[in-house]
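User: My collaborator sent over this chain with a note saying "see what the structure looks like." That's all I know about it. Can you take a look?
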Amino acid sequence: MSGMNGSSPRHGPPVALVTYSTRPRGGVVHTLHLAEALTRLDHPVHVFALGDPDVGFFRQVDAPVTIVAEPARAQTLEARVFASIETLTRGLAGALGDHYPVVHVQDCIAARAAVALRDRGAPFEVIRTVHHVDDFTTEALVECQRRSVLDPDHLLVVSRYWRDRLAAEFGVDSTVVTNGVDAARFRTPAAPGTTRTSPLRPGGRIGADRATARPPPARPVGRRANSCRSAAPVRVRPA
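Assistant: Without extra context I'll predict from the sequence alone. Here is the result:
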């Protein structure tokens, strides 16, 4: 049987993509694009995130998702981070089971939650993509971030700069996987010798050697989510 786009059938181990929020932040956006790319390849994938199960992500997601109800907002950043790690760990404990041998994370909170479950005997490996290192100021948060880099089974980075920096600051090896570009979100280059009106300022012009960026179309808020407030979540897949 062919995949959704005529690709090969489902293959490879199921992958859980875990992120710390449903809001439009860098690691979250990366997570959703990765999930949708794997879905287009007909690869089994499921997104898990902290947020409001009744609201869902900031946009429609063309992949199965589960939202773990986020904790009440604490007064300090340190308290919020550790409350989020604890809540996400509890939510994932019943959701992941032994269904996902690969868990991929892209932030400190998700990394710490996944590693905590792995260390309790959960049968999966944690892959961590490091986009950057935050400049935390409290000793507890600095250590939390350090563990989120040192403890995963595999590290990915988006550039040689971050590979070298992690090696220098943390003494770890990592694999460079550069960020991709979704060509469908940009216009094709203008024909040689022509100019095009720039969307960046009124009346602006750009030369033929520069492509004009096109803002992505507005998308409705997704509500394909289920709550982890009590029982183990039910897997939700798009129709």
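A starting point for your reply to your collaborator: Strands lie at 15-19, 45-51, 65-69, 102-105, 125-130, 154-157, 175-176, 196-197, 205-206.
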